[in-house]
Description:
Blueprint: H1 5-11, E1 18-21, E2 25-29, E3 39-43, H2 55-76, E4 80-84, E5 100-105, H3 125-136
Amino acid sequence: MDNCIFCKIIKGDIPSTKIYEDDHVLAFLDISQVTKGHTLVIPKRHIKDLYEMDEDTASHLFRVVPKITRAIMDAMGAKGLNVAINNREVAGQTVFHSHIHLIPRYSDQDGFTIRFTNNMDQYSQDDLITIGQQIQNHI
């Protein structure tokens, strides 16, 4: 796609610090560096988000993520690592070329947070069964 910043990085029109590359996947340092070593892993084929990704692309993409994760952890001396995928604008996606964030963690004060609201008291077991069945019906 002509106006996609990640497609331009893949073509070499925009410089990047490559971490890993094969025929289908590119991993490079995120210029924002939320934490030191923050890496993006992307399919080379333009795919808007995970919702539009086919199984073969997903299989290859997620097959290389552990290899890159281990390299980041070992090289950077991180104590943990967050894997984040934002799909669609409401979920915080700002570049509409599917990508996985690998964010090394050094402490709980390293500048990155993810907090989940505990809504356990909002859903009964019957609610969870109904929600689960609704999702299962679409698989």
